[in-house]
Amino acid sequence: MTSSFTLAGVAVSVGVAIGPAWVIDARGAPVGQRRVTREQVPHELARLRAAADRAHAELVEALAMASDLPNGPLRDILEAHRQLTCDTTVRAHIEQLIEEELASAESAVVRVMQGFARSLEGNGGPHLRELAHDVEQVAGHLLDALAGHGPATEPPAGVVLVVRDLPPRDAVRLRERGVVGLVATHGSATSHTALLARALGIPAVVGVRDALTTIESGALVEVDGFAGACHVRPSAEEQSRARARANRFETFVRGLVERAREPLRTADQVSIELRANIELPSEGRGLLARGAQGVGLFRTEYLFLSSPGSLTEDSQARTYAQLLRDVAPHAVTFRTFDLGVEELARALPSGPSAPAALRSAPRAANPALAPRGLRLALQSGGLLERQLRAVLRASADVPDVPVELLFPMVTSRSELLRALALLSDERAGLRAAGVTLPALRVGAMIEVPAAVVMVDALLPHVDFVAIGTNDLLQYSLAVDRADPLSSRWARPFEPVLLRAVHHVVQQARAADKDVRVCGDAAADPIALPLLLGLGVRHLSMPPPALPVAAAIVRRLAHSSVQQVARAALALADADEIEKLVVSELRASLGDLWAEQGYAPTLG
Ligand code: PEP
Ligand code: MG
User: Fold this and answer.
1) How many secondary structure helices (H) and strands (E) does the chain include?
2) Within a domain: residue 259?
3) Mean pLDDT, the chain, as a whole number?
């Protein structure tokens, strides 16, 4: 086939790349249930040990190769993989299958690791699904080592990698090889593959289901990391357009990053604060250079999931203090863990980390509405209390950096009051032990419709509220945020969202409290001007979105976006709202939108 075609996916790392495809097929043939004789058992056990040692050594090597990287997530995920290769519980299960059921080392690895991955995937929500992926990747490394292979064949410079997903072990090598873009069949905006692509700074599109079956190695591919598309075999004209766009974007970002440390104000001098959303504490390093005025949302649940069962109060306090030092003198907002039932079972320090125990973790009848967030954290057997103490201790260790605590998925005042009572007990306990605690600001996330409606009852008890547009859209419109195909029904400028933000801003203003937005709408080319116009002065977003968002802010006059937002509030349809913003702001933002890959065809 020689004609060009386009595949859609989820844009996870901005930019445009063009190069020949380097396709790495899904991992080899399925491993059969080969059995060995009793006499061969010692040999199988020795093969397993040697393979685990080799996989471990490869990950240690990859960690060393990543040691100069300023981006933290890659190293953190590699470290989690390294730990998994020497996890004694997992190893004991594999050895048991070899010894008792005479399974070959390969089939024992597959059975144990797949069972482990499936139990995590079951109905555990996005974080556990991601962990299941990690387990599969480590299983792949063990199988490679058993088969005597090392990491996948190394691609030449300048290619676009087309893969199922990207194991961090291989990601480190890609950086060295000069891979220019990434297309993956699996993954979502928050998947590790996405995180790694962003850490490596290469344009990437994930969730491109048919990529492996339709893209041939060597075919020219354009990766559009804005629109979430990959164009296969673009015409000569499309190629030169893509190359020009890639070059322009590079120059554009360089220019924006150079301005990153300048104060951020709209064209009519209204100060705006932009902060970063991070998932891993090591992401704090390097944020300030991108223009972040601190961390507006640290999703601490990833920390709990990457160190299952072993995250102590002391280790948390150390990690949090380090993040504060990395981001100083700016503030950090620690969101207490937002975990679901199964994820929590895994995170409990006294709880199980073994596959068997996880398999018996409680199953939710309706996973989409299973308990999560604050509601569940309040019944977490002391986990929330330990986290609160760790944050307080870190704030005492680094007293010059402002610390904020944010409670996720607040649905009622009573829940919030219970959390605040815990916080005040922990504060009192630490003070009684002689710890001097600096001031701490406390906030509630507004991300379920109940919190929007009840915001006036929540505001008197907090210093600020943070609107989480991802969940607010999901729960207002009954659309699964993790499903890329459904997202067209929950666009970040839906009228329900604008009206909810308007209501929360009005109520916060009346109560003289701060209001922020930390969901992905904050970085959307159409929603961002509207949020500013609705009176939001403080936004938090994924780090790669910061330079363009800052440029948009500098271009706009606050007074004019206020008018646009007022007009948008009167509309009842997302299409109409988009049309309005495009027609009103195209003159000031058109070129920035184009750089973001947003090409309005309206009006
Ligand atoms: C949100 O829901 O918008 C949010 C910021 O929280 P998370 O994406 O972590 O659920
Ligand atoms: Mg949320």
Assistant:
1) 24, 16
2) no
3) 86
- In this structure, the answer to whether residues 46 and 189 fall within a common structural domain is no
Classify residue 294: in a domain, yes or no.
Answer: yes
Q: Identify whether the C-beta of residue 193 lies closer than 8 Å to the C-beta of residue 186.
A: yes
The finding on whether 333 has its CB within 6 A of some atom of ligand 1 is no
pLDDT band for position 26 (cuts 50, 70, 90):
low
pTM for the full predicted model: 0.74
Tell me the residue range of the domain where 527 lies.
483-603
pLDDT above 90 for 511: yes
Ligand 1 and 136: CB distance under 6 A:
no
293 lies in the same domain as 404: yes
What is the CATH number for 178? 3.50.30.10
Q: What is the pLDDT of residues 364-397, one digit of tens each?
A: 666 667 788 999 999 888 999 999 999 999 999 9
183 and 51: one domain?
A: no
Q: How confident is the model at residue 431 (pLDDT cuts 50, 70, 90)?
A: very high
Helix (H) or strand (E) holding 237: helix 236-258
Q: Tell me the mean pLDDT in the region 417-426.
A: 98
Q: What distance in Å separates the CA atoms of residue 58 and residue 78, rounded to the nearest whole number? A: 10
List the one residue out of 308, 315, 320 whose CA is nearest residue 119: 308
Mutation probe of ligand 1 site: the residue of 190, 479, 518, 531 with most atoms within 8 A of C-beta: 518
What is the position in ligand 1's atom list of the atom closest to the CA of 408?
6
Helix, strand or coil, per DSSP, at residue 443: strand
Q: How far away, in angstroms, is 518 Cα from ligand 2 center?
A: 9
Pair (123, 169) in one structural domain: no
Per-residue pLDDT, 359? 37
What is the tally of structural domains in the chain?
4
Distance 519 CA to ligand 1 centre (A): 5
Task: Choose one of 471, 474, 479 to mutate for the ligand 1 pocket test, by most ligand atoms within 8 angstroms of C-beta.
Answer: 471
Q: Which residues are catalytic?
A: 192, 518
523 and 396 together in one domain: no
For the CA of 190, the closest atom of ligand 1 is 8
Q: Is 476 a pocket residue for ligand 1 (Cβ < 6 Å)?
A: no
Residue nearest atom 8 of ligand 1, based on CA coordinates: 470
- The response to whether residue 344 sits with its C-beta less than 6 Å from ligand 1 reads no
Please check whether residues 502 and 595 belong to one and the same domain: yes
Model confidence band, residue 425 (pLDDT cutoffs 50, 70, 90): very high
Q: What is the mean pLDDT of residues 360-367?
A: 59
- Residue 457 in any domain: the answer is no
